[in-house]
């Protein structure tokens, strides 16, 4: 296909006319498709139904006789800690199992840090006139929302294929002791799908930070969520932090929201023993303990990491055709036109499209007008402000395959129409 | 039985000798009994096992077709909101369903208030040099721990049979705008068992507070947890607050921890629409939503308030003999001796004993030395400091009946021995 910028005026008009007709056809179909969030589809959720059934569903005692129905167990039941220490590649005393939401654990860590700090010998973050977080972007909107809500200044950091640009990060944290944290989705990053390289992990672990209480918020949401032949390798950041004498630098998070049930999974937080003790000492004021019955169900259903991995293969079997459909439509509609490029993720929940500068919001609006809701423009950037107005996040997990094909065709038509306007404008 | 203070020296010595022998006998039995916390016993937890079994256990769709396995539902699923609006006697849009812990909801409300305040036109509590809470005492230790943790100054308020002493409260809140809250367990209060009178509720609702952002933390933990023939009446404080033009004064909390499963129940927060919107707007940064499968299980198992009440009758059948045993032992050991008085609760989870001044810590230690762990001395007062050193909280729900009888006999022996020491001084 010819690059759009190399088309004659006549060719442009011809294309435009054809695309407008196709757009009107879509509009007349009155689709009502929501592709805004990375929600598992019902077929994925069905995979874990065994957890609610029979002996697993009604189990309430661990092998050691602990009654999971009663109070207690602030950091989780021992077999759940064993399972997820394997999953997180940390020791059982380096993690805790929370409720159903890792976002909740992250939010609470930061809210507590505002009031109490993150260590004994540094002030509460809220006592300082201002604090700042580094925000590799495009990134996860809910991370950024927490910062905005709490008045934490966000500094966007550009992403490379190996992770956020480390030169920039190293310079910033070495200078500014008000920079207290960085958000990272290190594997199959939301939305770009990139996996942090070993070098990136090591540099994050060993970089000199002016703030003694700098913390990496390591949201490993997609650790086993591969689409290709197997999970991509990710270096263990806790090990890297320990090796560089910064053992307390990282708070790690994960959940089974996209393994078992999106709304009824388990959330995990991990880090050094010192960090976990700090957090548990504070959590003891918040709760007597999380839902241990749900932990027991997860243990009995998955058994071990191999069980989780086998389960995730079934997820991949459902998701792969959907992600392939996105790639196929984008390729057949946009290849060679030089108006967009997009990610080809090996895992995770998103495809990230970058349009020509200044086109994303218009594309998203145009798609919405024809019945396809995408993640709102700018969402993947701090303050919902995409400086180039070019990023579109596609979440293909939930809708059925045929809807995804239709939706992506519509999105591709919108991208072309808006690009043509821009080029001819 | 003769009052101890009227005994001759010889009689005192005789009693003492006899009691010491009985104490030694207990000690030689090497009991290991934990009566520290208000934990339901396994038989109580068994009552709700139907929730985990069969169609109820594996249900995941509401009648309206909502898939409870997926993300969403920040304030709860509609049928759970309907059930608990009946339970809380509020409108469905005046409540939210949280995770498994009402303590968690209370803690989070206060932690957020430290950073964000509780309303638009008042500063965050943490921005003030100091804030204070009124603490009716004896009260619930975990309430007091939250204040201590967050540096909130606690002002103990004496309890009468009708609730906390309102004259004192009214004077304090009218004067001091740093008083931002009060902890209340209005029904079958922990540990005294008293129920707030209608007048107390009304006065709390209508009293003039110097602080515009004063809030009542209404922890109605034992709303349907009666031991006698039926639940004692409690006036609806939200209605009372609305009638006195203070609709936003109260945050109400409840949970099913002592209805379904102590560690896997549902927590509820309720209040005016304005308050609920304030809270939900903030919670949206914390979580995508609570565990909706557990909500659905509760709805299908209990159906309606009548279902909950019928279920609570079964709890009462289990608990009543245990509470009677406590009363019987205390009466037969201590009646007429004028060395202690104790509550005769019509509901809730505790019996509260007041010893002679300066005896409680010694009694608790002495019982522990013989193998019976009671709630630590002072726990029912702010800063764990019982000014009279006289309050002992008895939690008879968990141990088997025969253990309770033995434990209470031991406690009564310890009370007599320590009292005799004090009297013969």
What does this protein look like?
The structure is a homodimer of 425-residue chains. Chain A is an alpha/beta fold and 425 residues long. Chain A folds into two domains: 4-44 and 309-424, Aspartate Aminotransferase, domain 1 (Alpha-Beta Complex), CATH 3.90.1150.10; 66-303, Aspartate Aminotransferase, domain 2. Helix content of chain A is 42%, strand content 14%. Chain A has 14 helices and 13 strands. Chain A has helices spanning 9-29, 42-46, 54-58, 78-88, 102-116, 141-149, 166-175, 198-206, 237-243, 273-283, 292-302, 305-334, 360-369, 401-424, and strands spanning 33-35, 95-97, 132-137, 153-160, 163-164, 179-184, 215-219, 250-255, 267-270, 340-342, 351-355, 372-374, 391-394. In chain A, the strands form three sheets. An eight-stranded mixed β-sheet of chain A has the order 2-9-8-7-6-3-4-5, sandwiched between helices. In chain A, strand 3, helix 6 (141-149) and strand 4 form a beta-alpha-beta unit. In chain A, helix 1 (9-29) packs antiparallel against helix 14 and helix 8 packs across helix 9 (237-243). The longest helix of chain A is centred in the last third of the chain and has 30 residues, at 305-334. The two termini of chain A are 22 Å apart. In chain A, 54% of the residues are buried. The mean pLDDT of chain A is 96. Chains A and B meet through helix 5, helix 6 and helix 11 of A and helix 5, helix 6 and helix 11 of B.
